[in-house]
Task: inverse folding
């Protein structure tokens, strides 16, 4: 990231909306290397996917070990071919399963579930270098589904849907 002065040109509730807002000007030749998408008020979320028992821990360990073994087998520079990768897969699965069970047991039931972690920002700001910010705002307001409104007040930002009140996003884009 460069050290030029930047300003927020739009904010969106999802990263996908922010990415679409950058993609459209990119198609028109805008220098998107002077733009960044910054997640604000980031939090770590964890979605529980199910219970975890001894069998699940062994299966999870086997899958992880198999992946590592397969990869190492493919990277073996001495012996080429599929055989080392298959041996690595089998050996990795066995070792992973044997290690997965004691690791699970050592937790003493404190984490008897499987989950997936992800980072979730409350809003995604599109920022641009000051030198190209006005052009970026213009392109965003002209795009299909664009906001059509541009304000520079810090207390209120309006959109075509009126979705923004104060500085917190409620939904949809806002050009600031």
Result:
């Amino acid at each position: 990231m460069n050290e030029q002065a930047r300003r927020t040109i739009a904010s969106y509730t999802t990263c996908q909306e922010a990415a679409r807002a950058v993609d459209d000007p990119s198609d028109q030749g805008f220098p998107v290397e002077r733009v960044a998408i910054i997640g604000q008020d980031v939090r770590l979320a964890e979605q529980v996917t199910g219970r975890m028992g001894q069998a699940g821990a062994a299966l999870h360990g086997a899958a992880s070990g198999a992946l590592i073994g397969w990869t190492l087998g493919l990277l073996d520079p001495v012996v080429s071919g599929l055989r080392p990768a298959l041996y690595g897969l089998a050996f990795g699965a066995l070792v992973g399963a044997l290690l997965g069970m004691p690791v699970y047991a050592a937790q003493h039931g404190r984490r008897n579930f499987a989950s997936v972690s992800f980072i979730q920002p409350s809003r995604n700001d599109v920022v641009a270098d000051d030198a190209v910010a006005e052009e970026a705002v213009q392109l965003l307001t002209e795009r299909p589904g664009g906001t059509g409104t541009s304000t520079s007040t810090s207390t209120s930002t309006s959109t075509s849907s009126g979705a923004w009140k104060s500085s917190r996003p409620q939904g949809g884009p806002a050009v600031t």
Notes: The chain is about 40% helix and 20% strand. Confidence is low (pLDDT under 50) at residues 148-175. Residues 83-106 form the longest helix (24 residues).
